[in-house]
Amino acid sequence: MVTAQYNPPAMPPSPPAAPSGQFKILYFASAASYTKKDSDRLDAPLPLSRLFDVLDERYPGMREKVLSSCAVTANLEYVDVHGSGVVIGAGDEVAIIPPVSSG
Q1: Quick check: 27 and 40 in contact, CB under 8 A?
Q2: Is 16 exposed, middle or buried (0-12, 13-18, 19+ CB in 10 A)?
Q3: Which residue in 66, 23, 68 sits closest to 44, CA to CA?
Q4: pTM for the whole thing?
Q5: DSSP element (H, E) containing 54
Q6: Which phi-psi region, left, alpha or beta, contains residue 82 (left: φ > 0; alpha: ψ -120 to 50)?
Q7: Which residues pair with 79 in a beta bridge?
Q8: Helix count (H) and strand count (E) of the chain?
Q9: In Å, how far are 15, 16, 24, 28, 46 from 91, measured between CA atoms?
Q10: What is the largest CA-CA distance in the chain?
């Protein structure tokens, strides 16, 4: 009788952390389509209130076409881009989350 040995699949490597002095930004759905990227790295520190300005400079028209309807998380917590005194620091992770429709 032959006994097969189970070898679980290897876990994919974790994405590399942001280099010193930068934070990682994740793009989902229409934000990823607009930037043609799943993620990016930006210089820190950056006041959260400036995030949309920086992204619109990098990707012209993004504020109006994508960001105006998006939610934003910083380190897995939803944040108010316009009304908070949050400063994005080095090593932080920010996500741009467009609205999701179902049907």
Answers
A1: yes
A2: exposed
A3: 23
A4: 0.78
A5: helix 51-58
A6: alpha
A7: 72
A8: 3, 7
A9: 13, 11, 7, 19, 12
A10: 68
Residue 45 token pair: 């520190």
**Mind listing the pLDDT tens digit for each residue in 24-71?**
999 999 999 999 999 999 999 999 999 999 999 999 999 999 999 999
- Record the tokens describing residue 1, joined without a space: 């009788």
Residue 23 gets which letter from DSSP? Answer: E
Strand partners, 95: 26, 73
| pLDDT value of residue 11 | 56
Residues 6+ apart with CB under 8 A from 76: 93
Whether the CB-CB separation of 17 and 59 falls below 8 Å is answered with: no
pLDDT at 83: 79
Identity (one letter) of the amino acid at 13?
Answer: P
